[in-house]
Amino acid sequence: MQFFLDYVTGFFALSYFLMISAATKQHFVSDRYPLGMYLISGLSLVGIITFLLHAFLGDLTYYVGPLVLMTTAFALFLWAARHSARKKLSLAFDEVTKVDGIITTGPWRLIRHPFYVSYILFWLGCAWGTVHPSSIVVLATLLFIYGYSAVREERALRQSRHGDAYLQYRRSVGFFLPKMVSRN
Questions:
Q1: CA 130 to each of CA 55, 60, 66, 124, 149: distance values in angstroms, whole numbers, following the listed order
Q2: φ and ψ at 19, to 5 degrees?
Q3: CA 83 to chain centre
Q4: How far apart are CA 43 and CA 37, in angstroms?
Q5: Quick one: CA dihedral 77, 78, 82, 85, positive or negative?
Q6: The predicted structure's pLDDT at residue 97
């Protein structure tokens, strides 16, 4: 039974990974592939290969929790993609962050960076599933990179013509986690 669940989890992880890989080329718009994206891509390859080796060799340490996290990541990504389809979002670390307005619908009502949260949930699931040092290093490094990239993107939004509206929006919506208590 565990062998079957390892395979299911592995195929689910591969499906998510392929979806976000395709979205990088189709959903996000950048003139050039930014240098930072090469780092993210390289780390992601190490992470997914490590996870898939464990999953397809029937050697996942845990599978229920990781599968729940990956399912949540998948749903959050699709929800965010649906609500941002008409906006021109830049790739992480794009030299010229294009600001095509502020998204405040869908998951953006709760958190300011739903794509990054989706990725973090996925890599957390991979690290939890394998409990392998390389998976944990990939998670920790990508968590730092996504946080840094989100801060850079917020700086670009504050400096754009949408800056005042963004500051107002930022007061009511959490960074990576929903705000539980309003300050108003």
A1: 8, 5, 9, 10, 26
A2: -65, -45
A3: 15
A4: 10
A5: positive
A6: 67
- For 100-155, the pLDDT digits (tens) are 789 999 999 999 999 999 999 999 999 999 999 999 999 999 999 999 999 999 99
- Degrees to nearest 5, angle at CA 140 with 99 and 67: 90
Question: In whole angstroms, how far apart are CA 47 and each of 18, 55, 154?
Answer: 13, 12, 27
CB 108 within 8 Å of CB 47: no
| pLDDT given at position 184 | 52
Residue count of the chain: 184
114: its two tokens: 């739903």
Are the beta carbons of 162 and 106 closer than 8 angstroms? no
Quick count: other Cβ atoms within 10 Å of Cβ 123? 27
Question: What pLDDT shows up at residue 181?
Answer: 62
Do 73 and 118 touch, CB atoms closer than 8 A?
yes
- What totals of helices (H) and strands (E) does the chain contain, helices first? 6, 0
**Is the Cβ–Cβ distance between 139 and 47 less than 8 Å?**
yes
| String of DSSP letters for 107-123 | GGGTBS-HHHHHHHHHH
Amino acid at 108: W
pTM: 0.93
For residue 183, the model assigns a pLDDT of 54
Dist CA 184 CA 169 (whole Å): 13
